[in-house]
Amino acid sequence: MNQWLEKARRKDERDALAKYKEEFYLGDAVYYMDGNSLGLMSRRSEQSMLDVMEDWKNHGIDGWTRGERPWFYMSERIGAMMADLVGAEKHEVLATSSTTMNIHQTIRTLYRPTDERYRILVDDLNFPSDIYAVQSILEDYGYGDGMVKVPSDDSHLLATDRIIDMMDESIALILLPSVLYRSGQVLEMEKLTRKAHEKGIVIGFDLCHSIGSVPHHLKAWDVDFAVWCTYKHLNGGPGSVAGLYVNEKHHHHPVSLKGWFGNDKETQFDMKHTFDQASDISQYQVGTPHIFSMAPLLGALEMFDEAGIGNIRQKSLELTDFMIGMIEDVLKDHDIDIVTPKSHDDRGGHILIGHPQAAGINAALKSKGVIPDFRAPSYVRIAPVALYNSFEDVHHTVMILKEIMDDRLYEQFDNKRGVIA
């Protein structure tokens, strides 16, 4: 038995979160390392979905207000379950819509351009959908040239000082990721928020790659808004309803995208043509909530409350520490570049490795039962997840990667991505 396997087993024996692995559906001889793209189904998620379907079966339309999970209040209930994960008050967090639609809703509501201050600061490494949304908003306001992108010196990381330096008097609003979706770098959200506010700028973050793996303190940091998906580390299932935080200091603003579920619930069914905006985060809802796309979260989020996001973060860092150390040791003779920052303060819940044959390596890993994902042009993301990956899983993953590199098995596969990477 090699030293890395012995170390992995010792760590697994001491792992207080190990019991949660049994909660998830894992295939035989499969090492699932793609939880930062789509989390696995848990038995609790499955049960909560079945429970909500049972409510439909038994109550029909009365399921909106009857039973243990009334649909009318489900968006707020799930929002409250996510509040501790983002460090916010329950009335500031909501499950609604998709990440991209929530970007539209929040920015269109909080964006207050003037002729002198109308630009929106983003970054050159953000997820494309965020950029599309911001650009369309600017075009709708007549400021098609108003997007300013923070550049990256190495195409992987962003410098905090560079971001701050670009916060000039032309910037009205900032949207940045909390964790860069490719490199896994964690941005200094507290410092960036403080500097933005010193210059009178509204600032928000996309938490898609941090929610459920990295603790947040949005209210204490005075962040204005945040958006996130729930199908990655939160394990809500494909297309599960997204999350939204808006600081209560902004709840007096008229929401941009108005719809009947943003109405005060007490007057919603008066059916008047005058919008009576809800006083809390509910105002950001638009249409009828997608009940079956929220139902799995009722079960999935229970585990985060039990395990504690601090414990999840600690194990996540230990898993990625273990993986980085092992790659540096057993793959030192191969051209593997670890892109993700090694500092705990700068690293999220996944690592990014680079190699000229990355697409072939990704395909070879999948053929051997390891599930990562590929990112163009030449990178593989690997995400060991605290709730369902063990240290021994990480060991086997790296040893399979070593076999692929030693025997050049990646040459058996096309070095190009599939339709979905």
Automatic annotation (TrEMBL):
<dbReference type="GO" id="GO:0019805">
    <property type="term" value="P:quinolinate biosynthetic process"/>
</dbReference>
<comment type="subunit">
    <text>Homodimer.</text>
</comment>
<dbReference type="GO" id="GO:0030429">
    <property type="term" value="F:kynureninase activity"/>
</dbReference>
<feature type="binding site">
    <location>
        <position position="100"/>
    </location>
    <ligand>
        <name>pyridoxal 5'-phosphate</name>
    </ligand>
</feature>
<dbReference type="InterPro" id="IPR010111">
    <property type="entry name" value="Kynureninase"/>
</dbReference>
<keyword id="KW-0662">Pyridine nucleotide biosynthesis</keyword>
<keyword id="KW-0663">Pyridoxal phosphate</keyword>
<feature type="binding site">
    <location>
        <position position="288"/>
    </location>
    <ligand>
        <name>pyridoxal 5'-phosphate</name>
    </ligand>
</feature>
<dbReference type="InterPro" id="IPR015424">
    <property type="entry name" value="PyrdxlP-dep_Trfase"/>
</dbReference>
<dbReference type="InterPro" id="IPR015421">
    <property type="entry name" value="PyrdxlP-dep_Trfase_major"/>
</dbReference>
<feature type="binding site">
    <location>
        <position position="209"/>
    </location>
    <ligand>
        <name>pyridoxal 5'-phosphate</name>
    </ligand>
</feature>
<feature type="binding site">
    <location>
        <begin position="127"/>
        <end position="130"/>
    </location>
    <ligand>
        <name>pyridoxal 5'-phosphate</name>
    </ligand>
</feature>
<comment type="pathway">
    <text>Cofactor biosynthesis; NAD(+) biosynthesis; quinolinate from L-kynurenine: step 2/3.</text>
</comment>
<dbReference type="GO" id="GO:0005737">
    <property type="term" value="C:cytoplasm"/>
</dbReference>
<dbReference type="GO" id="GO:0097053">
    <property type="term" value="P:L-kynurenine catabolic process"/>
</dbReference>
<feature type="binding site">
    <location>
        <position position="260"/>
    </location>
    <ligand>
        <name>pyridoxal 5'-phosphate</name>
    </ligand>
</feature>
<comment type="similarity">
    <text>Belongs to the kynureninase family.</text>
</comment>
<dbReference type="GO" id="GO:0019441">
    <property type="term" value="P:L-tryptophan catabolic process to kynurenine"/>
</dbReference>
<dbReference type="InterPro" id="IPR015422">
    <property type="entry name" value="PyrdxlP-dep_Trfase_small"/>
</dbReference>
<feature type="binding site">
    <location>
        <position position="99"/>
    </location>
    <ligand>
        <name>pyridoxal 5'-phosphate</name>
    </ligand>
</feature>
<dbReference type="Pfam" id="PF22580">
    <property type="entry name" value="KYNU_C"/>
</dbReference>
<comment type="function">
    <text>Catalyzes the cleavage of L-kynurenine (L-Kyn) and L-3-hydroxykynurenine (L-3OHKyn) into anthranilic acid (AA) and 3-hydroxyanthranilic acid (3-OHAA), respectively.</text>
</comment>
<dbReference type="GO" id="GO:0030170">
    <property type="term" value="F:pyridoxal phosphate binding"/>
</dbReference>
<feature type="binding site">
    <location>
        <position position="206"/>
    </location>
    <ligand>
        <name>pyridoxal 5'-phosphate</name>
    </ligand>
</feature>
<feature type="binding site">
    <location>
        <position position="231"/>
    </location>
    <ligand>
        <name>pyridoxal 5'-phosphate</name>
    </ligand>
</feature>
<protein>
    <recommendedName>
        <fullName>Kynureninase</fullName>
        <ecNumber>3.7.1.3</ecNumber>
    </recommendedName>
</protein>
<comment type="pathway">
    <text>Amino-acid degradation; L-kynurenine degradation; L-alanine and anthranilate from L-kynurenine: step 1/1.</text>
</comment>
<feature type="modified residue" description="N6-(pyridoxal phosphate)lysine">
    <location>
        <position position="232"/>
    </location>
</feature>
<dbReference type="GO" id="GO:0043420">
    <property type="term" value="P:anthranilate metabolic process"/>
</dbReference>
<dbReference type="GO" id="GO:0009435">
    <property type="term" value="P:NAD+ biosynthetic process"/>
</dbReference>
<keyword id="KW-0378">Hydrolase</keyword>
